Amino acid sequence: MLIQMLVHQPQMLGPVLKHTPTWVWGLLAALMALGLSQVRTRSVSLARVALLPIAMTGLALWGAVSAFGGSSQFGPVLLAWLAAAAAALAAVAPFAPPAGSRYDPATRSFHLPGSWIPLLLILGVFLTKYIVGVELAMQPSLAHDGQYTLVVGTLYGAFSGLFSGRAIRLWRLAARPGAPTHPQAANA
Residues 11, 15, 19, CA angle at the centre, nearest 5°? Predict the structure, then answer.
């Protein structure tokens, strides 16, 4: 609905942005900084690898609860979220960690190559939450539209599963007992 409005009435973008609470732009800035920090090669702790999927899953669940918590569609939304999260997790988790990823058991930290994917996923969660918020403000009846709520729940679940699946790929790297953790060790 919002996208259709912007295509047919682009002049409406100004009022939509003007009525967006200031804290939303602060949240976007913080999420952008988090996503951009993932673009460069870095070392991160085992706990920090868990933080991003937990935070993004929390943001996705907050989006579903805040949008549909009072709706008769809330149960189906949560089921759609859970099914999509499980499917995305199952699709991503079996793959190997990104090339160049290493785990150092001595420091309990990962050396990770930079990637734009986390930033894109973070922006996906934010934009979903933002667009749904605007659409529900403009047309509250959408909270009771079964098709709309299932699509949104599925989107939130897919994002949650993708984040979790990416983290599981790294945790497996740390859980391999006796496996070489550095490329030099594999060649020795």
Answer: 160
